[in-house]
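Protocol check, entry for the methods section draft. Step 1: assemble the input record (protein sequence plus ligand SMILES). Step 2: submit for complex structure prediction. Step 3: store the C-alpha cells unaltered in the notebook. Ligand used here: 2-acetamido-2-deoxy-beta-D-glucopyranose. Step 1 record:
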Amino acid sequence: MPVTFALMLLLSQATTSDPCYDPGGRPRFCLPPVTRLAGMTTACPQACALSPGADLRTPCNGSLALALGSPFLLTSVSLRFCTPGPPALVLSASWAEGGPWRPLWRRAAWSGALGGPDRVTFRMSPGPKASVVASHLLIQLGGRAGLAAAGVRGRCQCHGHAARCATRARPPRCRCRHHTTGPGCESCRPSHRDWPWRPATPRHPHPCLPCSCNQHARRCRFNAELFRLSGGQSGGICERCRHHTAGRHCHYCQPGFWRDPAEPLTSRKACRACQCHPIGATGGACNQTSGQCSCKLGVTGIRCNRCGPGYQQSRSPRMPCQRIPEPTSTLITTPSAYGSDPQCRNYCNTSDTRVHMSLRRYCQQDYVLHAHVLAIEAAGSVWWRLDVRIVAVYKQRARPVPRGGQDAWVPRADLACGCLRLRPGTGYLLLGSAASGPDPARLVLDRHGLALPWRPRWARPLRRLQEEERAGGCRRLQPSTPGPAAEQ
Ligand SMILES: *[C@@H]1O[C@H](CO)[C@@H](O)[C@H](O)[C@H]1NC(C)=O
Ligand SMILES: *[C@@H]1O[C@H](CO)[C@@H](O)[C@H](O)[C@H]1NC(C)=O
Ligand SMILES: *[C@@H]1O[C@H](CO)[C@@H](O)[C@H](O)[C@H]1NC(C)=O
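Step 3, stored output:
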C-alpha cells in the first residue's frame, strides 16, 4: 500500500509539474527554457578575446559569421567589443547554411559618436509568433572593430510540444510531449497518427491523436484523403494488425479466421481459426461472423465434417457425401396375387400390392434374384419343385445362389392360396425372406417373399442398390429401424 501511494504521489507530481499539460491533464502549448547556445564559430581573423594572442591592432573588418550547429529559436544576440564598436551594424539570420540571409536588426549609424557602443544586444520580440528560427548568424560591421565576445541565447525549436531539450546534442533533442516525436517534435508518434501533425500554439495545443486499432497494432499511418472524407474526424490506418485481425482499425478477422462473439474485439483471441474440414469444406475460409465453413454438396456442420440428412459418406474426396438413394426408389407393383379367400389372405399375410424398393427394403431381403421359371412340378405332399434359371443375382444370400439352371422349392399351400403366382415360361423378380426349409442349401420361395413378373426397367435401379450394398450401404442402415416409406 505505501508503495502504491508513493508511486501515485510521484505520478501526480509528474503530471502537475509538466508544463505541456494543464492540471486537468489536457495538453497545452509549452516551450523549452531559454539557454545560452553553444557551437559558435567565427569566420574572420579575430581580435581580442575570441582568438587568444591575436593582435589587438588587426581588428575585424567587414563581416562575422556565427554557426549555431542547428536551428534554434533565437531570443537575443549580444556583442561585446574590445575596441569602440563599429559605427554601423546589421544582424542577419539564415535558417540553413548558405541559405538566404534575412536581416533581423539594422543600425545604420550611432549619432554623435565616432564609433558605436562597445556593447550591443539584439533582442528578438518575445512571444511565439515573432520568434526567429536560425542556425546561422551574420554580423556585418560598418567599419573596423575588435570583437571580444558574442553571446547567443535562445531555445530549441520544439514546435510548442516540449518543455525540455538537450541543447548540447547535435541536433538538439526536444523531450517531446503530446505524442509527438523527432528532434524538434516535428511529427507524430507511430501510434498517434489519426490526425495530421501540427505545431502547438497557445490557443491550440494540437496534440497527436491515437489511431483506434483495437489494441492489435502499434503503428498507423496518416491518410489525408481519408481524413478529408471523414470530415476531419479520423485519418489513421492501422499497420501490421496482429492476432489475425485485419482492416483499417484491425476491426475484422483475416481470411481463415472468424470473429468469436464471446471475446471482446480488443481481445487477443477475438479472431479464431476457421478449422474447416480439408475434405468436407470447399476452402479454408469461413463466415466471418458465424465461423461457418463453406461446405461441399451434402456436407454439413460448422466445420463441414458431417454428412447432412439424406446423405451418406463416400470415399470420393470431391463428393465426400452422396445422396442416399431412398427417394429414388423403384415402385414395384404386384398383381393382386392371392384369391379373395379371407383365410388365404390371413395366411399369405401380404397386404402389399406395391413395394417401394428402397435401400432399406432391399437390405431386408434375404436374396433378390431375377429368375426364369421353366417348369413346375409337385414334389411330395408339401412342396412344389421349380425348375428355374437364375438370370441375375441382385442380392446374394448367405448361402450363395449360383447363376444358371437349378431347382427352387415352394410350399404347396403358398401356391394354392395364391400367395405366390408362378407360371412356367415366365421371368420373375424373386424377393426372398429368410425362410426355413428342410435343407439350408435349397432355394426356397414362400409366402414371406414375393415373386413379381419381371420388368426390364427394374434392372438398372436394382444394380444401383447392389452397388450401394457393396459400398456398405446395408451395414450403415442396420442400427436404425425401418422407416414408414419401406413399409407401405
Ligand atoms: C575595411 O572595409 C572597408 C569596406 O569594406 C574598406 O573600405 C576598408 O579599406 C577596410 N579596411 C581595412 C584595414 O581592411
Ligand atoms: C454469415 O453469417 C451470418 C449469420 O449467420 C449471415 O447473416 C451472413 O449473411 C453470412 N455472411 C455470408 C457472407 O455468408
Ligand atoms: C405379417 O405381416 C406383418 C406386417 O406386415 C409382419 O410384421 C409379420 O412378421 C408378418 N407375419 C409373418 C408370419 O410373416
